[in-house]
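Need LPS-assembly protein LptD's 3D structure for a figure. Predict it.
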Amino acid sequence: MQGVMACLAIGTLPAAWAQTAAEESPLPLRVGTSLLEQLPQDVRKQTPTFVFGEQIEGKTDGVTVIEGEAELRRHDAVIRGDRIEYDNASGETKAQGRVLVNKQGDRFQGPELQYNTNTEKGHFQEPTYELLRNDARGDASRVEFLGDGKAEVYNGRYSTCPRPPGATWNPDWLLRAERIELDNVEEVGAAHSGVLEFKGVPFLAMPYLTFPLSDKRKSGVLPPSVSVDSVSGFSVTAPYYLNLAPNYDLTLEPTYMAKRGVDLTGEFRYLQPNYLGQVRASYMPSDSLRDMDRWAYSWQHSQNVGQITGSDSLRVGVNLNRVGDDNYWSDFPRALRSLTSRLLRNDAVAVWRQGPWVANVGAYTYQTLQLDDSPITPPYDQLPSTTLTYSQQDRSLLGMPGWDFTVQTNVTRFRRANFVPTEGIQGNGERAFVMAEATRRWEAPGWYVQPKLRVHSAQYRMDDVLLGSSRSASRTLPTLSVDSGMVFERQAAYFGRNYLQTLEPRLFATWTPYRDQSYLPNFDSASRSFNWAAMFTENAFGGNDRISDTRALTLGLSSRLIDPESGAEIVRLGWAQRALLKDQLVTLPGGSAVTERLSDMLLTARVQWDPLWALDSTVQYNPKSRESARSTIGVRYTPGPYKVFSAAYRVQRERSKQLDIGWQWPLSELWGEAGKPVPNGALGPGQWYAVGRLNYSVMERKPVDVVAGFEYDAGCWVGRVVLERLQLNTTSANQRVLFQLEFSGFSRLGGSSLEALKSHIPKYQYLRQETLPASRFEQYD
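Structure prediction for LPS-assembly protein LptD:
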């Protein structure tokens, strides 16, 4: 073997010898363990123990005594003191005088320690401690090490506020408890007979309280929220989070409202490989203001039922939103996140796919919340709606490849509850339609032409009809359109920067003959918004009950400036206008024919000259009256983390003018330089932030919706005060002032003020973000 090694060293080993050596005596590499965060238990027992000191006495298999700067080290554990006695056979260790223990980055210091390095059990007298994962610290009369990463703190204090060296520790907030359990395996703590204090004032006492020891999802108290509401009065919410399993959790949000009573709210979330969803419910027994029980619930569920055969797939989805009464939306505008309007959508749908086939079966209903002073017309429910679609791409037609074909069929039952038909408006009924489409795109570098032929046929059957109306009706219409465009490019330079500049003209032609459709019901058609996509669409209406007789040409022109190095779009300008070749006579019920041959102009611009700035604007301009019917201009400035300002001005002629402003900004930036970002600490401690969103009506000279306030980051806690005003209708609004405390590393994110800030302020950032798990080497002795 020595000869083999010698030959390997000088590179002269014969090939046959090398093969024999490799087969008979392989030399595998061993994986090192010195840099592992945690060792397997069987490996841990085999790790060596090192001792250091000014004086060492003892026997190899007996007791070793180290004195003077004594230190015992074993992989991820370090013990230091003035004097250490270590029994190598049993692992029993005694340390005295300025004792320090570092266990995987958690540090304990005190006068006396008794500890077993093999079982990791022992006790520490009158220690102070620092925990690595959430930067917590505290002190106690005694700490018991229980092994397996567990410890118990007796008569202890716990906080994440810093401890100044050489000074009495009086943290801004702390938890006092007779006993605190620390489990580093589950990364959760539990306090028995605990009291939370803030600025020396006890404000929450609980016989049992759990809290997280890391950024992982753990059961525990969420930040409580206190608010004063203009309708409900003083309110306090004390949410509690239950991490039931890695794929299940439950949040309980009991709320006391001084003028109403107690509202019980809970949210359950679940996640499985084939399905996911959440359920949220609220119940208030005997609302004092309404003298009735109040309730609401929502359920969102999506599931992949599984592979039926080969390439088949079947998915189902459920979206339910219900409340107990019509006034729920105005009394509890924040209760359910789906309550963005007075129409609560409820859907149940199943989608099946196989190759070119897609089948969709669903039921779509609405709960309409009516108010006496502002009633609304409810939409039709669809019970049920069945759609079957067949599509093929890149097929041959008359020996010409590249054609795309689509055939869609739909049968829907429309029903509107408590609706009485009036003249010109029918009641409930059924509609079946077939839409077939064929299109092909010819293109080459610099140009494209895409013709499209569509045929739309619909059949109606009505339940209740008025005098002179027919119980059944039908309509079939063809539509021919051609979309074409060109792209010109050139090198350009503006303001000292090089760009690739484009010029992109586009011409869209569409022709649909006129058919009188005034005798048909209108279940789901509505006018399209005036935007870029609508200008290049065949039908002026959305839905399937009205097919506009659009015989028109649309001309568009856009130009872009592109950064040649990054490919980023710096500037985009656009213009479009539609010219009718004939009057558009098909209208919605109550509408009038379009006789103006030239539509309004659509002007768009988007500029992001600097990554920090972005400007978007859209103008609907009438060249005949030389006025803009609708215009929007918006700008956003994001110079860095936790700094964002956005503003938008929206004008709809003779109807509304609104200014919309949103912001999150460190106040120190206004009179000096803000702090630098720190991990999970925003811009550092001692920072004030202004946050808000203001929607102001210029015509009425009053705010519509307002969410504004301040956040203060003290380092180990975050405080918030937020003023919220939400417009309920033209005459009333709901107002409240909300206060919230969040203890860093103890109470997790999730309070209602955060929900209000996140949902209203564009690009808002939480002051506490999840970070990578801490490593024991970050706190290494």
